[in-house]
Design goal:
Blueprint (H helix, E strand, L loop, with lengths): L3 E6 L6 H7 L2 E3 L2 E4 L2 E4 L6 H8 L8 E3 L3 H13 L4 E6 L7 H10 L5 E6 L5 H15 L4 H11 L4 E2 L12 E3 L4 E5 L2 E6 L4 H12 L4 E8 L5 H12 L7 E4 L13 E7 L2
Parallel strand pairs: 1-2, 1-6, 6-7, 12-13
Antiparallel strand pairs: 3-4, 3-5, 8-10, 9-10, 9-14, 10-11, 12-14
Helix pairs in contact: 3-4, 5-6
Length: about 270
């Protein structure tokens, strides 16, 4: 059976230990604080990022995609270790240049089987697609078919507050009051509750409005994340062992700020 390896980027917020355990390769995106530049997850951990992000008078961080050379180096390494094909799942093309760099790297390896998938979102939306893809690969599905299934799953994949009749949706993140959505790769304000408590309640309502297949709770150093997770589990009737909690890292965190909480969700068909 052909061996398919999954690659993503640091905007996936995939914990390095989890990535290693699952054999998922992570391309580090770039984070800059003033004159200091870091590779997310390599030169700058999530904990270090939030410590610096919340420090008094800290320069506001900026993010950027890695170069095609960084992607190619990862791809070369994967093939050198015996992979037959790569499925590369990345942050939405409308949010980052990562997809473009991945496509260029792919063009530099014309004799290799590489499938690029636009997650149309960020954070655990990427990771969930990788996990699903690995399950399909373990069942014998070819890389090209896995990429096609990922695109079908993404018929409606979003980060945000509004629910429709679509088959899949990604997440809900709330800040102090507004509910921010990334729908089809576009950032929008989904709702504007008047208080944080009402915003939190509205997010939980939206997350649990339909039967959930997979969910990962996301937060940016939010003190109430455990209570948020418990309430989502209670209302959705989920097994707590199936609901992970992930801290948003250096590649997405600058666009949210501290104190946000939400979820990446894949709904049942």
């Amino acid at each position: 059976m052909a061996r398919t390896v999954f690659v993503t980027d640091s905007a996936s917020d995939l914990d390095p230990a989890v990535a290693m355990a699952h054999g998922i390769r992570v391309v580090p995106l770039v984070v800059t604080f003033g004159a200091d530049t870091y590779r997310a997850g390599i030169d700058l951990t999530t904990a270090e990022f939030w410590e610096r992000m919340t420090a008094p008078d800290a320069p506001f961080p900026k993010t950027a995609a890695s170069s095609p050379g960084e992607f190619k180096a990862i791809y070369d390494g994967v093939f050198a270790e015996g992979a037959d094909a790569i499925v590369s799942v990345h942050v939405a093309a409308t949010l980052s240049g990562a997809i473009k760099s991945a496509e260029i790297a792919k063009s530099m390896l014309p004799d290799r089987e590489i499938h690029i998938v636009d997650s149309m979102g960020a954070s655990m939306a990427e990771s969930i697609l990788c996990f699903i893809g690995q399950e399909l690969a373990a069942g014998g599905m070819a890389a090209a078919e896995i990429a096609d299934v990922s695109l079908e799953t993404l018929e409606y994949l979003k980060k945000g507050g509004r629910i429709s009749g679509a088959q899949a949706a990604l997440g809900t993140l709330l800040s102090v009051k507004p509910i921010i959505a990334v729908e089809d790769g576009k950032v929008e304000t989904a709702d504007k509750p008047r208080t944080r408590s009402k915003s939190r309640e509205r997010c939980i309502e939206l997350i649990t409005a339909r039967p959930i297949e997979r969910v990962a709770i996301l937060h940016t150093m939010a003190p109430d994340v455990d209570a948020f997770r418990d309430e989502v589990i209670r209302r959705a009737g989920l097994d707590p062992s199936d609901v992970s909690v992930t801290i948003v890292g250096p590649s997405v965190g600058p666009h949210l700020g501290p104190g946000c909480v939400g979820a990446a969700v894949l709904y049942q068909r």
